[in-house]
Amino acid sequence: MTSQSTLGQQPEQPQPQRSAASLLIGKLLAFGFCLSVSLTDVVFKKSEAPAETLMIFRGSGIFLLFNAIQCHEVKQSFLKTYQRNWKILFGRSACHSTAVLFLIVSVQKLPLSIYAVIEELGPLFALIMSGILLRECIKPLEMFLGAVVFLGVILVIQPPIPILALWQTEESSINKGDYVYVLVAIIAVFLLSSSKVLLRKMSTKNQPVPVSVTACSMAVANFVIGIIVHVYYSGLSWLICVTSKQTVYLVLTVVLATTNQYFGYFANKLEKTPIVALIATMKVPILFVFDIFMYPEVVQDYNILQYIGGVTVFLSILFLIANNYFRMNQKRSKNTRTD
């Protein structure tokens, strides 16, 4: 359900020259990934099912359908990776699953388009955490674009501060009581970005982490945290206390969770990761379109400052990912000349 840039993620591994057909398929899969992730958010919002129940079904889907194919191919590296990195894997899985739980809660309470813009704070948090955990140097341009993204998000969420009061309408697109969910969404994006940086921390060019390892640990953590939260709120009651309408959305959650994994996995295999990230950024306008058709009364309450902020965030993220892409190419070219 999360589509963030390559900043803070596992470094792209050297791959053989791709054909024009594979690059086209990779781009189509990247768009499919973006659309699938957007639909997942819509399902979460429309389901009206408890967040912990959605977590359990999401984890079950990823674990059963994705890892059943992957695990038998990399069983040896699977076990070795766990033995070598179990502490980081545990921390990453806990961060990621807590982030998913928080994101489900926030997407059910906030307008889809506002939620999507908040989620674009991910690359900014990834930059910060990469500097802290990986000791990477943050370039001045990246710091500037990160600051612009932050400003754009402030313009969109419009916290109740006097300087923004002139542009706010009487009927705000975010109810005052829902600002706590804005904070929950921001914390979730921070945790999600941290989990991606932790993935890079345990990955090297010679020992990349198999995708089955990360998917398996993430799925198990989703399932376990979902169970714990359910027991906390509902005791030992049956997990499947849902309506027929919710059952349909839970099935869609399983299907989309697995589809997200496959589309994202094969898109990054066939196309360069930064290009996939650029396409995935289209989630912002896609969710805005969903808002227009599904919740027109919410969109009508948006003011000019929110539109400016949304466009600012979207363009800044595009520039940030493009800058990262060109920097990676430059570094690769220098390494090639050195060799």
Q: How would you describe this structure to a colleague?
A:
The chain is 75% helix and 0% strand. It is globular. It has 13 helices and no strands. It is mostly helical and 339 residues long. The protein has one domain (32-338).
Task: Describe the structure in brief.
The protein is mainly alpha-helical.
Layout of strands and helices, then pairs:
Elements: H1 20-47, H2 51-70, H3 75-109, H4 112-119, H5 122-133, H6 140-157, H7 179-201, H8 211-234, H9 244-270, H10 273-280, H11 283-294, H12 296-299, H13 304-338
Summing up helix and strand content along with how strands pair, one would put the structural category as mainly alpha
- Name the helicity range: over 70%
Radius of gyration: 20 Å
- Note poorly predicted spans: 4-14
Shape: globular
Distance, first to last CA: 40 Å
Main sheet makeup? none
Characteristics of this structure?
single chain, 339 residues, mainly alpha, 75% helix, globular
